[in-house]
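[Help] Beginner question about ligand-bound structures

Sorry if this is basic. My supervisor gave me a protein sequence and a SMILES string for zinc ion and asked me to "get the holo structure". I don't really know what that means in practice or what format the answer should be in. Inputs are pasted below exactly as I got them.
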Amino acid sequence: MKSQNLLRKSITIALFTGASIMSVNALAQNDAKLSYKTEKITDTIYMLSGEGGFTGGNVGLSVGSDGVAMIDNGLSSTIDILKAEIAEITEQPIDYLINTHIHGDHIGNNHIFGKDGARIVSHENLRASLIKDEKNGGPASFPVLTFNDQMTIHLNGDAAQIIHFDHAHTDGDAVVYFKNDNVLHTGDIMFNKVFPFIDGNNGGSVDGVIRALEGIAAMINDQTKVIPGHGPLANKADVLRTLAMVKDAKSLVGKMVAAGKSNSEVLKANPLAVYESYSWGFITTEKMTEQVLTGFAK
Ligand SMILES: [Zn+2]
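Answer (accepted):
No worries, everyone starts somewhere. Holo just means with the ligand present. The predicted complex, written as structure tokens, is below.
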């Protein structure tokens, strides 16, 4: 459970600082032991995740004779250790860089890899939001290949299906499914074993998260390796457990709303107390209740 506690603490730091990714970077730089570790998931696919502190979201890599596709790229402060870790796996440059969503702990190094020649791929809403954001990393950080519904990159003997789920964690989410390798990266639609963060300010919604988790569950099987946005490697049972929890949370809160309770009455009653074990620093049962209530707002 040590890594679980670290995950909770780490995401808390990222979310409390919100737009101030610089603060997170300062924290990361002060941690001398911060590093990436690599798990080889299949012959061609790797998961890179942080150790010793917060590096950002889990990174996926497809490496083979056709080239390299990378999913997400961590906080900007982690560029040196990220590049060093990638160099241990391959000397090839990154050909495609897929962004799962707009948060800085997932796309903090777009500008670096973009300048290095990677073609950045994202949902069209992500590109539009990034261009509007004054704190973006400049044109080199902008996706050059965008899609509305889904697209596929054929490489390394597999088809990387990049699929959009609308208004889930944000309004520009993508999950990436390597069908032959049977590996799926969820982005932040799923955190393993903790409440999800639903970013309403960026177009996220509870119903969207439920639809996305249902969609993911329908695509995969019991052998699928699921790379969550944060936390340890997961599987279909983890996806189904998360889905059941979010649906039940919606039902528990919804019953109180239907009974005419005000938001403050619902919060006071703490209907999600049964899910206390899913709480972490930023998304407590109260905050999760607030996220769910947003979906019932008229
Ligand atoms: Zn996120």
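A couple of things worth pointing out: The domain at 2-235 is CATH 3.60.15.10 (Metallo-beta-lactamase; Chain A). The CA atoms of residues 186 and 239 lie 10 Å apart. Feel free to follow up in the thread.
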